[in-house]
Amino acid sequence: MISTLPTRRGIGFKPTVSWAGAAALTLGFLFGSSAALAAAPPANTVIGNQASATYSDSAGTTQLATSNLVQTTVQQVGSFTLDSVNQVTTTIVNTKIGAAGSIVYAPHTLTNTGNGTDTFTLTVDADADKFSKVEVYADANGDGVPDGTTPLCTAAAAGVCSVPAQSVAGNNGVFRFVVAYTIPGTANGAGAFETATITATPGTTALYTAPNTSAADKDQVTLTTDAAFNVTKSIGIPSVAGPGNGAWPTATSGGPRSTAACATTWSAGLASSATCQYTVYTLTFNNTGGAPGRFAMSDALPSGMTYVAGSAVWSSAPGTALGDGVGGDPAGIDFQVSGNTLNTVVAALGQNVTQTVSFVVLVNSNAAIGTSTTTNVAKFEPANVPLTITAAAIGTPGSSTNPSAYTVVASYSIAVGTNPSTAATAVDTTPGTPNGTAADLTTRPSVVAGGSVKFAQSVFNAGTGTDTVNLTVAAGTFPAGTTFVLFAADGVTPLLDTTGDGVPDTGPIAAGGSVNIVVQANVPSATAVGAGPFAATVTGRSAGDATKIDATLDRVTIVVGSLVDLTNTAAGTGTGSVADGDLGPGPSPLPTSTNATAAGTGTVFALFVKNNDSVNNTYSLAASQSTSFPGTLPTGWTVKFVASGGTCASAAITSVAVNAGAQGQVAACVTPPATQSPVTAQKVYFQVQSTAVASTGVIVSDTKTDAVTVTAALVSSATLTPNNSGQLAPGGTVVYPHTLTNTGNQSCGAYTLTATVPAADASLGWTTAIYLDVNGDGQIDAGDTLVTGPQAGPLAVGASQKLLVRVFAPGGASAGATDTTTVTATFSGPGGCGAPSATDISTVITGQIRVLKTQAADVACDGTADGAFAAAPLSLKPGQCIVYKVVATNEGTSPVANIAINDAVPAYTSLSATQPTAATQCTSTGVSGTALVYAQTATAVSCGSASNSVAPSGTATLTFAVKINQ
User: Fold this and answer.
1) How far apart are CA 913 and CA 597, in angstroms?
2) Beta strands 940-944 and 896-904: pairing type?
3) Burial class (CB in 10 A: 0-12, 13-18, 19+), 341
4) Which CB contacts under 8 angstroms, 24+ apart, belong to 330-334?
5) Mind listing the pLDDT tens digit for each residue in 278-319?
6) Which residues, at least 6 apart from 496, have a Cβ–Cβ distance to it below 8 Å?
7) Three-state SS sequence of 95-121
8) 3-state class of 456 per DSSP?
9) 839/206 Cα distance (integer angstroms)
10) Which of 627, 628, 607 is nearest to 619 (CA)?
11) What is the rounded (10 degree) CA torsion for 930, 936, 937, 938?
C-alpha cells in the first residue's frame, strides 16, 4: 500500500543522520533540473501542499509529524486572439478577388489563449453594405472551405451576420470558420469593391482585461472582370494518383514527429513508420473570375517540415511527378522547388476551373510540440500574372491561403532508476521489468524489524513533451504487511496526487527533465530477525500515455532485529502463508473464507485472535484490500468490527484484549456499497496488531485473507471516514476530522451522532465532543456547531457532512496510554442508511509535536500576506502568490529535540522572487541550543538546526511564498 497522506505520527525509527545531514539530503536530492515547470495551470486546478516536521522524542526515537493539507484553486483568466489580433483593429487579414455574381470565401481562426473554456460571439458587418449576402460557416478542419451547407448565420444586404455563441476550450483551443461573401450579379467595374469587419466578443467579459475585451479585423474583396483566383490548403489523401501512379502515404493532420533520419525523396511505397512521419498537403486553386488567366502561387513550408523531392503531382497530369527544377513538368505548368519553398505557375487556368497540386512532407524530428513550427499559409496572386512571372522568378504574391496545421503530439517515454542514474541507464529492456543493472537497483544493507528503510530514486521524462509520472509500489518479496510511502527528494514531504486520478505522482516534468523521490518501506515488527533479502518493484506510469511504464527494484539484504495468530476458526486451517490456510503467519494467497452478499448489505466473518505470548495484550483490528497496512478498502466498502456473535447492527469495536496463552473472538461486518457491481471473491485482508510491545519488545501482528462475492445491488448506504490516530499530552486534546457520506442512490433520513470511549477510559476521565465542521477547514472555530442532539437530515445522494471529534485526555493519564473512540452515525426512520462508524485512536505522549499549516493570498507578490492566515481554501489567478505559514508546536509535557520543519514547492508554482522578510522566515519560541535557520532551494524550504531542544509549548515557524505559474 502507498500512503499519500501519512498519519500524524510515523513508524518510529532510530535517527541515522543529524539535522544538518538531513538538510543536505533535502538540498542535494531535490527535484531535478527541469522539475519546477513554469506552465500556467488550467482553470480550477487545485494546488495542494503539505508540510512535515521531524524531531526526536524523549526516548531518542525519530518521529515524523505531517501537517494538514492546504489547497488553492486556480481562477480562470481570459485572453483570446482573432487571427493575429487581440483587440479591435482595422487590419486587413484576407484580400479576396471575384467577379460579379461569384462567392468568395475568407478563412478565420479564433484562439482561446486563456486557461479555461469560454463562449465567443462573432459578427460580420459589411462596411458599405454592398454584398448581396454574407454567411458564416464552420471550418473545423481548417481547409478554408465550409464544412457543410448549413451556415451559422446569414445576412442580406445591410444586415449583420451574427454567429451564436460558440464554446472554445482554453489553453489554445480554436474555432475555425469561413465567411462567404456573395458579390451581386449587377456589380460592375474593377478594383476595390467592399470591406467587412469581423468582431469577436467573449461571453464572460469579467475574465478579460482591456483592450482584450473584444477583437476585430477586416476582409477586403476586389471586383474584377478578368481572372479571379482563390486557393485553399489542406491535409488529406488527394483524389489523383501519386507519382508513378503509386499510393500516397497516409495523410493525417496530427501525430508524432520523426525521431530518426528519414527518406526525403519519393519512392514507391513511401509510408510513415514508428520513426518517420509523413503527411500529404493539397493546394486547391480555382478561377471564379470572368476570363481565363495565368496563375502563380508559392508555398514556403514551415521549419518543422521538409518537402519530399519528386512527390508533387498536378491534377491535370495524375500519376506524373512534377519536375522540381528547371524543366521536367507536364505541358501547362511550371513547378520549381528552392530549398523548402515550392513555386507553381499555371499557364492558363480557365474560368470556373478547379485544379490541385499535391505533395508529401516529412515532419522533422525538431518540429515543436503543437503547431508552432508545422503551420503555414501558401501565398498566391489573386489576379492574372504577366508572362514575366515564372516559377524561378515568382515575386511576392499578395494573398494568403487559410492556415493549414499539422499538430505535433508528444511522444511519451519514462524511466525510473536509482539515484543517481540516467534515463539511458535506468530504462527497462522489457517495460515494467527492472533491467538488472546497478542503475536500476537500489540496495540497502539492513532494516530493523518494525522499522523502516528508505530508497532514493530518480524519475526521468525521456519523451518529447511535459509529462507527469504516477508511482506505485509492488511489495514483491517484502513481508506481508509492509507499507510503502512516497516522499519528495527530502525524504519527509509526502508526494501528492497532482492529476486528480487518485495515484501519487511526481508532478509535471519537462521533456528531458527528471525528479528525485524517496520510497520508504515500513517493515512489520513481526518480521523474523535474519529474514531476507526482500525486494519490491517501484513502477512509474506516464500520465500522458498510460501504456508507457518503467520500473526499478528496491532491495534490503537482511532483517536485524508471531506472537499473535488470526484465524477464521478456533483451530485454524492449514498454513497461514500457503493456499487458503490461516494458521500461523499470514496472509495466505487464497481466501480462507468467502462470503456472498448483496450490494449494500453487510456480511459477517468470524475472527479468532490467539495470543501465543507470555504477556497479556490488546490488539487493534484493521482491514484492507491489499496486504499492506494501514490500507484502503475498495471504493465505497466499509468494514466494522463487532463483538463475538455480533451482527452488522452491533456496536463497533476497534480492538480486543486477549490474555497470555488465551484466544479471543470477534466478528467483522464487511459491507460493499449499494452501487457495487457484481464481483466474485473480492479479497479482504484482516489484521490484528498489538497495541503494546510483546515480550520480545516489538509490536507484533498477523494478517489473514478472506473474500466477499457481491451478488446484487441495494440502494441505501452511508459511510463515516476515515479512521484516525493521533497524539496528545496529559490534560490535552486532539481533534479528528471525519466525513459522513451518502454512498447509496437514495436519500438518507435523520441521524444521531455519537463519539463513545470505552467504559474503562470514561471512568478515568476521557471525554469527547462532536462538532459540525461548517466551513470545512478541519479545525474547530467559532463558526462550527457543537452537536447536542439528533440531526434532522436528510443527507442527499452523494452529499456529505464534515465532522470534527475532539478527544480530551485526563490530566493524570500516563505516557503510552491509548484510547479508542468510536464515532457512529445512526440513521433512523424512512431512508435509513444504517449506522456507519469510524474509530479514533489517541495515544498519550509527553513530548508531542503538532504541525499546523495555513495560507494567505499575496496578490501583489510582495512577500506580505494580504490577510489573516487560515487553513481554508483560496482562489487565486495565475501570476498571483500564496504565503504559507507552518507552525510546529510541542504540545507535550516534555522537551523534544532536533526539530526541523520541511516543505516543498507544490506543482504549478515556483518560489516567489520576493519572500517574507528574513526575520519572519524561520522563527521559534522556547527553543534552546543551536538556533534554527532557514534554508531553501528552487523546490524546497526548511527551518531547523542540528542540535536543539524545544520546551513544552515551544514552537518553530516556517514562512515562505510561492507564485502560481502563468
Assistant:
1) 59
2) antiparallel
3) middle
4) 334/390, 334/391
5) 999 999 999 999 899 999 999 999 999 999 999 999 999 999
6) 4, 48, 49, 50, 69, 504, 505, 906, 907
7) EEEECCCCEEEEEEEEEECCCCCEEEE
8) strand
9) 47
10) 607
11) 170
Q: In sequence order, which residues have a C-beta less than 8 Å from that of residue 890 and are 6 or more positions away?
A: 847, 848, 849, 896, 899, 926, 950, 951, 952, 953, 954, 955
Task: Tell me the pairing of strands 407-408 and 254-255.
Answer: parallel
Rounded Cα distance between 664 and 644, Å, is 9
All 3 cell numbers of residue 592? 480462507
- Reported residue count of the chain is 966
Grid cell 485454524 — which residue? Answer: 572
Residue 296: which of 355, 225, 384 has the closest Cα?
A: 384
What H or E segment, with its residue span, contains residue 763? helix 759-764
Check residue 665 and give its pLDDT.
96
Mean pLDDT, residues 117-141 taken together = 96
Which amino acid would we find at residue 822? Answer: T
How far is Cα 770 from Cα 751, in angstroms, rounded to an integer?
14
Side chain identity, residue 240:
V
Please report the sign of the dihedral spanned by the C-alpha atoms of residue 648, residue 766, residue 809, residue 658.
negative
First CA to last CA distance, the chain? 36
Listed in sequence order, the residues at least 6 apart from 206 whose beta carbon sits closer than 8 Å to its beta carbon are: none
Neighbours of 792 (CB within 10 A): 8
Q: What is the pLDDT of residues 685-703, one digit of tens each?
A: 999 999 987 654 557 788 9
DSSP letter (8 states) at residue 492: S
Average pLDDT, integer, range 772-784: 88
Task: Tell me how far apart the alpha carbons of residues 427 and 435 are, in angstroms, rounded to a whole number.
Answer: 7
Q: Are 856 and 912 in contact (CB under 8 A)?
A: no
Q: Which residue reads 513538368 in cell numbers?
A: 329
- Select from 65, 54, 61 the least CA-distant residue to 898: 54
Rounded to 5 degrees, what angle do the CA atoms 581, 585, 589 make? Answer: 45
Rounded Cα distance between 479 and 527, Å, is 7
Q: What does the alpha-carbon distance between residue 765 and residue 904 come to, in Å, rounded to a whole number? A: 40
Amino acid symbol at 378: A
**For the CA atoms of 795, 796, 802, 808, what is the dihedral angle to 10 degrees?**
20
DSSP for residue 641: E
How many Å apart are CA 616 and CA 614, to the nearest integer? Answer: 7
Three cell numbers, residue 687 = 489484521
Least confident of 38-52, 139-153, 268-282, 818-832: 38-52
| CA-derived radius of gyration, the chain | 35
Residue 527, classified by CB atoms within 10 Å of its CB into exposed (0-12), middle (13-18) or buried (19+), is buried
